[in-house]
Amino acid sequence: MLEVKGLRAGYGAVEVLRGLDMAVSDGEIVAVLGANGVGKTTLNKVLSGVLPARQGEIRFGGMRLDGATPAAIVEAGLIHVPEGRRIFPNMNVRENLELGSYRRGRPRRAANLERVFETFPRLRERARQFAGTLSGGEQQMLAIGRGMMAEPRLLILDEPSLGLSPLLVEEMFTLIRRLNADGLPILLVEQNVVQSLEIATRGFILENGTFAMSGPAATLRDDPELRRIYLGL
Amino acid sequence: MSLLVAEGLSRRFGGLLAVDNASLTVPEGGLVGLIGPNGAGKTTLFSLLSGFLPPSAGRVTFAGTDVTAEVPHRRAALGMARTFQIVQPFAGLTVRENIAVGAYLRHAARSEATRLAEAVAAEVGLAPMLDAQASSLTVAGRKRLELARALATEPRLLLLDEVLAGLNPSEVRDIIPVIRAIRGRGVAILMIEHVMQAVMNLCDHVHVLAGGRMIAAGPPREVCADPMVVEAYLGHGAAARIAAGGTHA
Amino acid sequence: MKARDILPGLLVLALLALAPLVASNAALNFLLSSLIVALAAQGWNLLGGYAGQLSFGHAAFFGTGAYATAILQLRYGVNAWAGLAIGVALGALVGWMIGFLSFRARLRGSYFALVTLAFAEVLRILANAFDLTGGAAGLLIRMAPGAANLQFPSRATFLWLVLAIVAAVLLLTAWIAGGRMGARLVAVRENEDAARALGVDALRVKLGAIALSGGITAAAGCLYAQNFLYLDANIAYGTWISVEVLIACILGGSGTVLGPVIGALALHGAGEAAKIALNGIAGPVPGIDLMLFGALLILAVAFLPQGVMGGLRRAARGLAR
């Protein structure tokens, strides 16, 4: 579904991504894990077209996407739910969701809105509330709901568990599993190693701009080196 | 001896009662945690304790003095320092200059303030970054900077608002000894946290705020086993992990 | 305060002090009015640059200084030097009052900027209306050349006086910037809440900044009055000076010691150059310098947001690496 080959990118004189290779197939949850500052957000920015790649290929459903504009990437169905929610605080929940289908999925907007409200009943309750007044967990749900409005063929989730209470983190991961069970491939970029590897099919560990480790999630979970570095065990 | 006493604090925003009759104490040199779901009112409670918001009802006493109506900079002078959840270093200044702003509270001379800033930087592990631009720090670095700035005011009590948010487990593991050492030299700490790894490892005592009210208080293990807390905040998966002795929620 | 901070500035001023040796009277006049604007900009810089409270109404202080010294000389026979001192004090007072009203009301950012503009405009309208300030006709300071009256037919002498005052404010700015007050100004600018949590009395810091700023810009107003010996409401309280000090600081580098001076000289220099060049080609084009100011502002904000001084600093850092 999504194929990345030899990806290089950076800011000014600093190269952050130094040649990444990875793939997400239909129906998978792929976790990209790593410490702060290793390039996880840079990777997402390149995938969604906000930051240009310096070298390498990105293929989505067979189509070349590197060099495409963010609008074209959204139209193709590669949807990015950014880190830190980034909801529009002075618009209400419904307006935020409707904006999700600005580029893609507009014809079926009403039906999609209904689907999102079914998935997130709390959002239906607060449909007319200003998004800025929602709690952190509700804002995260709103951000994901907004992403869903664009009828994604692949959903990139950037640190959805950031700043959430343990209960909400659990709910979030359950939700991610459910979305995937409905057939949506998900690229999960996270710091929460334990719970990410629990739901993922495969994982990649990003370190210093390259994938230091990769493989089936179950193997990674038991890797002693990983446990030492990332779980402090 | 109780350093900080909050009695029956409430704060109303129009029709919303964000904090409802909340009370807590922090003993001299204690390390107390404040946990609870998002939107429970924890940061509002912090704003009440640190003077950024006046309470609708209740009292705050610090080192025996009633500070309920005191403005933030006066509370800092009395020895209560606070960090913010969304870290904003003073852009355009170096790490050293950032920390010096805190140091200037009790030291008017530049040389003294700078010396204190350098000492505090060493304490939190930022010594190699002293001359770097604060805006070039990573998330983990910025959290340490936030901590250092508050420490430079030589407080008796530190209010830490999610100082560990956004850090991965190894970064959390690295900063825990720093916090412990700060407490070790006599500074009391009240921390809002979601990172259970830290709460279990550090706190003597934990208060749980949900829907604006205190629903539980006690030693960490006890609180994490409380069914109300599990229901409202932890979720069964995390509670099970904690009970099994692991410290990762 | 390190030598590095003030040496370049003092060097530039020293060079300018040599100007009378080579420049014509017209050129010296031009330099003089540029330096008076530079002084006014130094005032703005303390409030807008260091403290981050952008003012669109510094004319309020400029005009207060100018009118104060003019009225004191004309109506009360006060000596011009005393007039200068009182003008500065009044400028500081007006600053404090505007600050008290605005900052206590928690006005920040755009709201504060607009309120300062409003104050300046109100003063302009009042000055236009009342006899005390000469109404629409304005005030003419009696020509009485002599150092005792702060009137210098010799352009060189006046130039050196103004240079000395600019230099003094330069040193004052460097001294403030290097110490506790400077650190607190910047902290309030960058993140007022974080500063308050660290024990900074933000209100007191801002009031101090606006009072000092008002006093310095008022001094520029006084010197302007002494130079041209005529003022009316539009000269004293007109938006022209508010705009020029703002652009000068942004162009030169707001929040730096030397920025306002470099900016004012560059701004006026560019304006004059444009006038001269166009005069040769198409005859006099009124307002060409204003158009140029606008263009320079846009270019500065787009490409050199930290101004000339910021650009130089970045280049120096790049070279050091």
Automatic annotation (TrEMBL), chain B:
Pfam families given in the database record: ABC_tran, BCA_ABC_TP_C
Keyword Zinc-finger: no
Domain of life: Bacteria
Keywords on record: ATP-binding, Nucleotide-binding, Transport
Family matches, as InterPro entries: AAA+_ATPase, ABC_AA/LPS_Transport, ABC_transporter-like_ATP-bd, BCA_ABC_TP_C, P-loop_NTPase
Entry keyword annotation includes ATP-binding: yes
Single GO MF descriptor: ATP binding
Annotated SMART domains: AAA (SM00382)
Gene3D superfamilies registered for this protein in UniProt: P-loop containing nucleotide triphosphate hydrolases (3.40.50.300)
Protein name: ABC transporter ATP-binding protein
Organism: Muricoccus vinaceus
Automatic annotation (TrEMBL), chain C:
Annotated TM spans: 81-103, 156-177, 245-270, 290-312
Membrane topology summary: Multi-pass membrane protein
PANTHER family according to UniProt: HIGH-AFFINITY BRANCHED-CHAIN AMINO ACID TRANSPORT PROTEIN BRAE (PTHR30482:SF10), HIGH-AFFINITY BRANCHED-CHAIN AMINO ACID TRANSPORT SYSTEM PERMEASE (PTHR30482)
Record key words, sorted: Cell membrane, Membrane, Transmembrane, Transmembrane helix
The organism's taxonomic lineage, starting at the top: Bacteria, Pseudomonadati, Pseudomonadota, Alphaproteobacteria, Acetobacterales
One family name in Pfam for this protein: BPD_transp_2
UniProt KW Cell membrane keyword: yes
Name of this chain's protein: Branched-chain amino acid ABC transporter permease
Subcellular localization, as worded in the UniProt entry: Cell membrane
Principal location class: membrane
